[in-house]
């Protein structure tokens, strides 16, 4: 749909929730460099990096596996998400409504928003872990995933969550500006944390680094049991940990502001400085902590404090913030469809902020990120397959593009079946057969794409 074919109406302070973004509001590719650097060289890195060591990954596998996985992730953004975003200039949620119908998309939006809120909640936990350090307040990870930590830590989570929700409610421009300002400084601090950790371990050669790494793995596995996180698992995880954003097309909502598809290269900065350099540096901090104290807990605030002091504390706070902000923003767009048309555009974001804050009170969620990000990619990713088919194959295969919009339907059963059936099978293998969640993402995406084509052809739509 071209913007000349519709009345361009500015909704909610420039967010254009139900119209294409007009040319006057489009942004150059440089805007996306800062946005993605701030989001992906951020709070999750302080949690995920140490978890690789805790999961028993070898350092060589980590270095080369992350290299390949991140390249695949960048290519997915550039060649799957960006072209569709630039062409339609619509949010994921409105694009999906045109295909699935407003009743079905509300169901998807609730699932989508809740999962994004859990991710944002983990980042609120990360920031709160740093806020508590000067006050001697730390979180513990209860055995029960929904177990509470201390009342004092819960209060810090609430304060941090409210502030993050207010910033996210200000809209995309505020989120983008905050990320652009914070990203360069955070990247320098991540590197400093890694160098400080190496110095604390007295590493002076590659061989000595491997020795200290292997010692750290041994200590963790002695406490938690032997686990294996090999090369291909690292590749798949690093490729698909953001599957909901690229394969699942959630970043249509971000990249719709792009002037051209070059914005799809924007995540490259976040991937290689965040999901490569920062993950590895963060893992070094846990290795150093184990060597110095024997403590195997991956508390982001404590790790950064030990590495670079107050600079680390501030960095953890800001890092959690720059991840939670765009995530709450995305979740808010999902929840907005639940409100009446006349409701304020920030209503959904405020709701998302409240849910994310509630999730942040439970620290065990942040410790399950290696599994959680694959799980939410498995659940949300397949809808991106439906959008992909609708965009590229509908006309070529002679079935209706934007079915619900063209037919005046509020519910497209073809979309429901194409989404639910593969996801149900994927969840069965994850929970009943102990499949690593990230492994299910692409099979479910492909299955949903094929199912949607078959069902649409069978109903001769």
Structural account:
It is globular and about 65 Å long. The model is unreliable at 1-14 (pLDDT under 50). It has a single domain, classed as Hydantoin permease (Orthogonal Bundle), CATH 1.10.4160. It is built from 18 helices and no strands. The longest helix is centred in the first third of the chain and has 31 residues, at 102-132. 69% of the residues lie in helices and 0% in strands.
The chain-level mean pLDDT equals 85
CATH H-level superfamily: Hydantoin permease
Helical percentage: 55-70%
- Summed up, the helix count is 18
Task: Report the CATH topology name.
Answer: Hydantoin permease
CATH top-level class: Mainly Alpha
Name the overall outline: globular
Secondary-structure-based class equals mainly alpha
What's the story with the biggest beta sheet? none
Q: Helices and strands, in N-to-C order?
A: HHHHHHHHHHHHHHHHHH
Separation of the first and last Cα atoms: 20 Å
Supply Rg: 22 Å
CATH architecture: Orthogonal Bundle
Q: Please report which band the strand proportion falls in: under 5%, 5-15%, 15-25%, 25-35%, 35-45% or over 45%.
A: under 5%
DSSP strand count: 0
Poorly predicted runs of 5 or more residues: 1-14
**Domain unit count:** 1
Topology, pairings included?
Elements: H1 29-40, H2 43-54, H3 59-88, H4 92-100, H5 102-132, H6 151-169, H7 172-200, H8 206-224, H9 231-240, H10 252-255, H11 267-293, H12 300-308, H13 310-336, H14 347-360, H15 369-392, H16 403-407, H17 413-432, H18 441-458
